Amino acid sequence: MLFFNKISKKKRLLLKTTVITTMAASIIALSNGPVALATSSKLTTIYHVYLNDAYMGNVTDKTIIDNIITEKADTMKESFKGVDLKIGEQVQYISEQVFQSTANNQNTVQSIKNNFQIQAEAIAIVIDGQPVVYLDNKITAEEVMKKLKQQYVSEAQLNELAAKASAETALPPLLENETRILDVQLSKKVSMETKNIAPEKIIPAEEAVMLLQRGTLAEKKYAIQEGDVLETIAQDHDLKMADILVLNPDLTEESLLKIGQEINTTVLQPFVEVIVEKEVNQKEDIPFGNEVIEDSSSPKGETKVKQKGQNGSQSVTYMIAEQNGVTVKKDISNKQILQQPINQIVVKGTKEIPSRGEGNFAWPTSGGYVSSNQGYRWGKLHKGIDIARPSNKTIKATDNGVIVSAGWDGGYGNKIIIDHQNGYRSLYGHMSSLNVKVGQTVSKGTSIGVMGSTGDSTGVHLHFEVYKNGGLVNPLSLLR
Fold first, then answer.
1. What is the CATH T-level fold of the domain 274-351, as seen in this structure?
2. How many whole angstroms separate alpha carbon 359 and alpha carbon 419?
3. Which pLDDT score, from 0 to 100, does residue 130 have?
4. What confidence score (pLDDT) does residue 470 get?
5. Residue 353 pairs with which residues in a beta bridge?
6. CATH code for the domain defined by 221-264
7. pLDDT of amino acid 233
8. Which residues of the chain have pLDDT under 70?
């Protein structure tokens, strides 16, 4: 852009005085005879053109500049229909009569084209003293603020809130599971001001809402390059790993990145947030408690429900504050018990009966690990689990009970079955030797044999099965 000297009103007045003095001198010359008259007939008028006090040059005819301005204004009006364009008093002319014209129409026209700007009267939404967005009029600006709030509350709720505010009456208690909006406000001071700006800065209402809510209209994308990992990408963009994962929900810390893949690196920072205060009533359960009564006449491990528990209920009213949809405060303002809970009473047997199991199964080996789970393998059902590599090869009774089987059984090899007298039975297979006999009572943890590889076995291990009332059970669901 060219540099133009600014002139003050005083300087313009001085120039006008100079022009008048020149004209006066010409008039005096007329009185001095025919020669002076002939010279004065050659005077011509030129126009000095100023744009906002900056000198643009001079022209022979003001209409040259006026036509340029009119043409530019018409073009802008066609491009920005409905916008109140302001031409204003930007251009000023000072005429001068000279004997020889020094006007340069072409240069002056080009200067005007380069520097003349038509402005639009717009409504700025000002946040904490700073204009953020520009709208075509106040109605649109008010609609934007309304739509911003409607991201978190409905139009009906806003109307209801306004009606209650004007009524100024006490609010009735909430009904069951009812929600009532108490206030909708903004996190920062927001106002509206009239501004004259370039028309290009005016944006549609939808974009204005998005800009206020997100802080940006365009998300920054980063294309994965060779050697990139999420941690370094986060560091390079002043983000934390958690930020990257939130911005890209389809990614995890273990995600395989592909060269050229684009990920979002834009942390949204809203210009202003919507704070919604509301009152919420909820009917909630009051969980029942558990009460245990010990009974020395009942076998240990046996339980019986004497009284079935029943949840109570309560009506709770919360005062909740949400900021951009996220709860930032939740306080109980009122609580009313509707129905007291009824405790569940369980009678638990404590009588020790060596032949009866307690229902809690102990690990049947000294350590070791599960080398094969229950389920189908090699085309048939593997009924139990295999335990291998214990610290020693002693096999122990998983719970109290009576030996009902002890001896060789085909593919099981040396096998023991214990009836725990409470609906459960446990089976131990592939043992190298047995330490118990049928009919013998054993207690939990008693040694019943030695781990081996008898029967259909691929190595030293314990094959362990559990049954309840005749049905197969996964031992891992019972072992403690």
1. Resuscitation-promoting factor rpfb fold (2.20.230)
2. 12
3. 94
4. 95
5. none
6. 3.10.350.10
7. 92
8. 1-41, 81-84, 86-89, 218
Residue 18, pLDDT score: 39
Alpha-carbon distance 448 to 456, whole Å? 21
User: What's the angle, vertex CA 27, arms to CA 26 and CA 31, rounded to 5?
Assistant: 115
Q: Are 44 and 101 in contact (CB under 8 A)?
A: yes
Residues of the chain with CATH 2.70.70.10: 369-477
pTM across the whole model: 0.56
> Which pLDDT value is given to residue 82?
65
**What pLDDT, in 10s, does the model give residues 33-77?**
444 444 445 899 999 999 888 999 999 999 999 898 888 878 777
Give dist(CA 398, CA 480) in Å, integer.
10
CATH classification code of 369-477: 2.70.70.10
Inter-residue contact 39 to 29 (CB < 8 Å):
yes
HEC profile for the chain?
Answer: CCCCCECCHHHHHHHHHHHHHHHHHHHHHHCCCHHHHHHHCCCEEEEEEEECCEEEEEECCHHHHHHHHHHHHHHHHHHCCCCEEECCCCEEEEEEEECCCCCCHHHHHHHHHHHCCCEEEEEEEEECCEEEEEECCHHHHHHHHHHHHCCCCCHHHHHHHHHHHHHCCCCCCCCCCCEEEEEEEECCCEEEEEEEECHHHECCHHHHHHHHHHCCCCCCEEECCCCCCHHHHHHHCCCCHHHHHHHCCCCCCCCCCCCCCEEECCCCCCCCCEEEEEEEEEEEEECCCEEEEEEEEEECCCEEEEECCECEEEEEEEEEEEECCEEEEEEEEEEEEEECCECEEEEEEEECCCCCCCCCECCCCCCCEEEECCEEECCEEECCEEEECCCCCEEECCCCEEEEEEEECHHHCEEEEEECCCCEEEEEEEECEECCCCCCEECCCCEEEECECCCCCCCCEEEEEEEECCEEECHHHCEC
Query: Which residues, listed in sequence order, are joined to residue 294 by a DSSP beta bridge?
Result: 348
In the chain, which residues fall in CATH 3.10.350.10? 221-264
Please say whether the beta carbons of 301 and 444 come within 8 A.
no
